[in-house]
Amino acid sequence: MSKKIIGIDLGGTTIKFAILTSEGEIQQKWSVVTDITDKGSHIVPSIVESINEHLERYQLSPSDFIGIGMGSPGTVNRKEGTVVGAYNLNWTMIQPVKQLIEEGTGIAFAIDNDANVAALGERWRGAGENEEDVVFVTLGTGVGGGIIAGGRLIHGVAGAAGELGHITVNPEGYDCTCGKKGCLETVASATGVVRLARDFSEEYAGDSNLKTIIDDGQLITAKDVFDLAKENDELAVKVVDKVSYYLGLACGSVANVLNPSTIVIGGGVSHAGEFLIDQIKAYFDKFTYPTIRETTKIRLAQLGNNAGVIGASSLIKEHINGTL
User: Which of 5, 88, 181, 197 sits 20 to 30 Å CA-CA off 110?
Assistant: First the structure.
């Protein structure tokens, strides 16, 4: 029997697990609630407990596995296997994740930032089609990303490479949580889309269901904005056009430097589908030069919630082979 891999996607609400083949095919999946109480001190023990419980259930032993790969929020030290600054997990102090999981399971362990791990997943088994040069952009509550160049994840000197949400798209724009102004995250995340909609609504005087909803004091979501834009609501169309402009500008800037074969767009906002992708492409073509336009594609992510566990499984393979 060929050896298997465990992939873990650690999130602030749930921890997703999967047992996969060495080719990245999911055989079993499960999840547990993330217990962030007591400064997140229960998280790693619950991971160990859940893995051991499921190995027993499936009549597997540590020797049946190549290793465990995990994606985590926060600042990850890949060599030491530690995490710090994952505030949605209440991890303000350094967490010796690798040490505790290897001691608790007897299985080799590797870890990376969650956005990087999702990028690996989409590159290997998703929209990246296992190509050597792939950029992944995830549009959620914030905007994250991962860059794979020449088949290798780009980490940078401080591990901060791939933070595509902090590309400046409007130097005079909104304040970002990072401390500077006009980051892509402030206008293309789920919260950014809503912020734009509310600001545009204040200056808009025409007929619009979106404006009526906002003026009535009702809560709106990014999905509401895109759904109304698909119905040709004039204000919503203007908002989506601006979001697409910023995404096209950012993706164009990245492509002009890296010339990846594919830029993959994922995350909750990407559920707007090809409606969004087509508009990003129009601006992308405006902001790129001919060679880039002809060779870099923009695609929707394909793996959804499985990107993290699949990417984590490829992480352990690459870690053991010494190529990451």
Answer: 88
